[in-house]
Amino acid sequence: MERRAFVGAAAGVLIAAPASAAQPVRTIYRIGLLGNISMAEPEGARLWGAFIEGMRDLGYVEGRNIAIELRSSEGRYERLPDLAAELVRLQVDVIVVPADQNALAAERVTRTIPIVMIGNPVGSGLVANLARPGGNVTGLSVLAPEIVGKQLEILKEVVPRLAIVAVLWNPANPGHARALEEARIAAGSLGIALQMAGARGPDEFAGAFAAIRSERAGAVLVLLDGMFLLHQGRIVELAAQGRLPAMYSRRSDATGGGLMAFAPSLPDIFRRAANYVDRILRGAKPGEIPIEQPTIFEFVINLRTARALGVAIPQTVLRRADEVIK
């Protein structure tokens, strides 16, 4: 009886063992986010929140099957190489970056970890073409060719006698080179002269706007840049002090007191970036995933700011706005 009991128990162990071994091992994917603003900032929470929401819609939940590693330069681009290297040391499965300089920093430290970028992939030299990026970089472009031209066209409608437009750009942002070229082409067709006003950091804003005033620019176009976002309030303040009608490249710039913004919907783009991450985690090669361009644009006008500047927004322009702040 004792022998039969022992054999039965042993058989039970043998039967139970495969069942235990068959239990699926849950895979936790580690997603690296190499940004310029943290989730503590309202715009950071809005944009990265849209990405995380997009991941959740695809079945990825933090703590269940993904772990998020967010590193932020806080607008200090010189920190990006070290932050990118840190994510590589953590052996993340994918790195998501919201700007050209971030993508360049990540690409310099890894040619194997897939990089999903939001920015200007072709203009920054990271990919050969939109249809077949090659390498380990893919993602979404925020610079559709018509954006800068449309921004200048709207400024010309709002200020019909506009002769000189200052362009506030960041020489440390490699994506701005193409934007400036697009601005030159559009300005030529509109009969507008451009004045380039560069600012690498917030300590250069005052000097840039002093140069803008000295050149008697009639309006200012502020290009899309992470560092500009962190100091949005200061830029809006300086434009107001100079009584300059300003066109911005983010919705939040207009809702935060700027005159107007015409820009791609960044929350939509960040949400769509989740699809790229999903495809990569399922085995797709980043170099074979085509880069998409913006599909949704936002045009916001702040009438409170217009009244303060003494600018009359034509009805033809107001009717085209997606949002009018009264």
First and last CA, distance: 90 Å
Structural class: alpha/beta
Please identify the top-level CATH class of the largest domain.
Alpha Beta
- Helix count equals 13
Encode the helix/strand succession as letters.
HEHEHEHEEHEHEHEHHEHEHEHHE
CATH superfamily of the largest domain: Response regulator
The biggest beta sheet, please?
Answer: 7 strands, mixed
Q: What's the domain count?
A: 2
Mean pLDDT, all residues? 90
What is the fold-level CATH name, i.e. the topology of the largest domain?
Answer: Rossmann fold
Assign a percent range to the helix content: 40-55%
Stretches where pLDDT falls below 50 for ≥5 residues?
1-23
Radius of gyration: 25 Å
* Largest sheet, spatial ordering of strands: 7-6-8-9-10-11-12
Question: If you had to describe this structure to a student in words, what would you say it looks like?
Answer:
With 326 residues, this protein is of the alpha/beta class. It has two domains: 29-142 and 266-296, Response regulator (Rossmann fold), CATH 3.40.50; 146-264 and 298-325, Response regulator (Rossmann fold), CATH 3.40.50. 43% of the residues lie in helices and 19% in strands. It is built from 13 helices and twelve strands. The protein has helices spanning 2-21, 42-57, 80-89, 100-109, 146-158, 176-190, 205-214, 226-230, 232-241, 251-255, 266-281, 303-309, 315-318, and strands at 29-35, 66-72, 94-97, 115-119, 137-141, 164-169, 193-198, 219-222, 246-248, 260-264, 297-302, 323-325. Helix 3 crosses helix 4 (100-109). The protein is elongated. The protein starts with a helix and ends with a strand. The relative contact order is 0.13. The model is unreliable at 1-23 (pLDDT under 50).
